[in-house]
Specification:
By secondary structure, the protein is mainly alpha-helical. The chain has six helices and two strands; from the N terminus they run ααββαααα. Strands 1-2 form a two-stranded antiparallel ribbon. Helix 1 packs across helix 3 (42-54). The longest helix is centred in the middle third of the chain and has 36 residues, at 76-111.
Length: 156
């Protein structure tokens, strides 16, 4: 499959695929004329790479984990790394869930006529904790999105 076909099916730019190849995340076979060719499985691999980037993993971490996914062979170091990343993602999910729940409370309060907004200065100290968690989650999400954007933004 040629680079444009993989890019279209995976929903990324050809530039992203070249970046993944550069990072050794996506191997390509070159034709005699230098064109990149990928197996059909490349589409699923690219989607997984995108998911891992979106979850906050960097290229190095993804590179360390991919052999387990594609060969089924796992080392104790890979297993430990996957566990650390899963725990980090679980923490993000908990923080985002608390933030969503707090936002639900704010929406409910705002929908009641005459009730003060739950973010008013008299709100509990829990609001500050939730805001801090939301801020951390936004920063982590922004870093992930920045990495994805940097790797998928077509050149000018």
């Amino acid at each position: 499959m040629r680079i444009g076909d993989v890019a279209a099916r995976a929903g990324v730019s050809p530039r992203a695929l070249r970046y993944y190849e550069e990072q050794q995340l996506l191997p390509a076979v070159r034709s005699a004329s230098g064109q990149r060719h990928y197996p059909d499985s490349a589409v699923d691999r690219v989607r997984l790479i995108q998911q891992l980037y979106a979850a906050g993993l960097g290229s190095k971490a993804i590179l360390e984990l991919l052999p387990c996914v594609h060969t089924g062979i796992v080392t104790p170091a890979m297993l430990a790394r996957m566990s650390v990343e899963r725990d980090r993602i679980d923490q993000q999910v908990r923080e985002l869930t608390r933030t969503r729940d707090r936002l639900d409370d704010i929406i409910s309060a705002a929908q009641r006529v005459g009730q003060p907004c739950a973010l008013a200065p008299s709100a509990s100290s829990e609001t500050a904790e939730v805001a801090a968690a939301a801020s951390r989650a936004r920063r982590a999400s922004h870093r992930s999105q920045s990495r994805i954007a940097a790797s998928t933004t077509p050149p000018r």
